# Entry
Amino acid sequence: MVTIAKEVNFSQAEVPLKGTVVGAGDGHRYLPRAYIVSARKREAADTVTLTLKPKDSITDACPLPEPGQFNMLYVFAVGEIPVSVCGVESDGAFRHTIRRVGAVSAALCDSKVGSTVGVRGAYGVGWPVARMKQRSLIILAGGLGLAPLRMLILQVVRSRVDFADITICIGARTPSDVPFLREIRSWQRLKCDAGLFDVRLIVDRADRDWRGEVGVVTALLPRSLTAPELSLAMICGPEVMMRHAASGLVRLGLSRSDIYLSLERNMKCAFGQCGHCQFNRYFVCRDGPIFSFEKVASLLNVKDL
Amino acid sequence: MSSASDLVGSCFRVSSDVLGLLIRALKDDGYMTIGPRKVAESIQLEVIDSVDDLPRGWGDQQDAGSYRLVRRSDSAYFGYNLGADSWKKWLDPRRKLLWRAKRDGESWEAEQSQMQVPRMAFIGVRACELAAIKVQLRVREVTQAHSSSPDAQSSTLSAEAPAGVPEEPFLVGINCSQAAATCFCSSMHTGPAFGSGCDLVLTEVINDDNHNFLIQIRTKRGAIISSKLPLLPSIEDDLAHIDRQIARVSDSQSRQLNISNPAEFFSRRLEHSHWDDVATRCLSCANCTLVCPTCFCSTVEDTTDVKNAVAERWLRWDSCFHLDFSFIHGGSVRSSTRSRYRQWLTHKLGTWHEQFGSSGCVGCGRCIAWCPVGIDLTAEVKSLSQPTQ
# Structure
């Protein structure tokens, strides 16, 4: 009989390391689905809205996005970028409004009707739709920041009676940079019995024909609020504008947890794995892009975070 | 006679020749055996065919910004500490094909690449490296759990998961016989004693003319492989020897990293003046992230053939030290070295806890040795603990 020295305890119970090959089989998560450009509309000098329909069948389509979510759009042999969804058509087609700022966005802007664009999504956390009912809404958009808010505004217009006062403030650099101008004008003409429905437009620099207001979008914020505790604010635009707007709303009496803003960061995977979009403890693609001001206020004050 | 599973939890003594038999047994069982090799002037983790490939008689001397192989006075197989390579190289390949798309006129179709993963056996895993493998797995688990939960509203729900999850690698651990000057696993509680997860744990014992290994069998899989080896019973003192060795290695570590509430520690120091000081030394070269066994950031590369008919997407390692890592139109979010070093250290030691429930650092010290200017994160944390200047 051989005596074998027996260990009495390991530092931890033995647990098998399941699925240890970390990088195996990632392909499917990055696989774009083929969509056809079914319409292309020029919004401004450098901005285009594409309507994208699933190429094969609706069963092969990406899930329908919620307002504020985004898709990853891929152009063959050029690359892929995150783009917010600005609308979903009744037939399940997506609308994306894109400004020409880099190689991929330029290729998207130039894509012809009938061409194929890759789509994967929908990603991220959208606007707090569930918290909006019966509340007064303040919606603030700077430039193309209106795109991720458009779907939300359309929902609000459709079920107007569900909300109290509605204030929409839209800013753009020049009159020719205002996206969705015809739609904005139609919102401004909406008649409303229940509460305020105020759609305001402002430009940084006017041209000869501009008869509206001139200045920064935060100048459109209400001077005071009757019931700030019942208000909810949604902001999208340049980070510096959102910071000022959110601080202004806090001064008007809104709670930081009732102010939401949409952050933009570099994204490669869109599901919290590549690390590019990290904003301190958050992955913007997964934990955002919509954040409550309460979560990010202190972080937004740190330069180059 | 006892069955293989009875061996689990036992410790045996084998002569050093048995190491070759172990490699053979693993290969016969269909494993691709991967272990340390002396390549040029460093130890790298490569495919090994036999015991002859191991860096016998080589050790290393490491310090901040310095790594040198040195001849040992004995013929230890595992007498080195750690090289720049980590097992990440095999678990999360540097570059891999995600999908390939073929163009047909205006239209195209993308097809997922099928990645063949061999059955791998890792020979010579250190305790800190096992801890790093577990951190990597945890990162993966959290990411996947998030993207498959209904609230996450991700499209991966309907995408098909890859068939055939590869078998986890067979892990042969090796107890460290000394610590490098850069080691601080003891203060990170990731070593020098092994946590769970290895199939076998070896301890190399060299006394005068005797060159033996103690072999601790920790899993059934480890027991089945070991049952093919000529095992000798260990004696009571063998286990005590292992404990003494671990205690000695632990005590000899001079570097330490102790932060009591890491997330809070860094969130209170985002504007600390010491970040400017590090930025005067840091070259933003990304060496620390590439040698780090847990850094997981990646990027995608879209490529095309000359006829523009076939496009591919590749995934490759990336680093938060690269200027374009945080690029959005108009410029990079983290345009300064100060902000990039702060991002790396804050994430590795602080926000990692909030994201993945542990530190991202296992105390292997690679980032200290392979930093070309010898930046030492344990020293930087000490400086950050001082009041801002």
Residues 262-385 of chain B form one domain. The first helix of chain B runs from residue 18 to 28. Chain B touches chain A through 98 residues (CB under 8 Å).
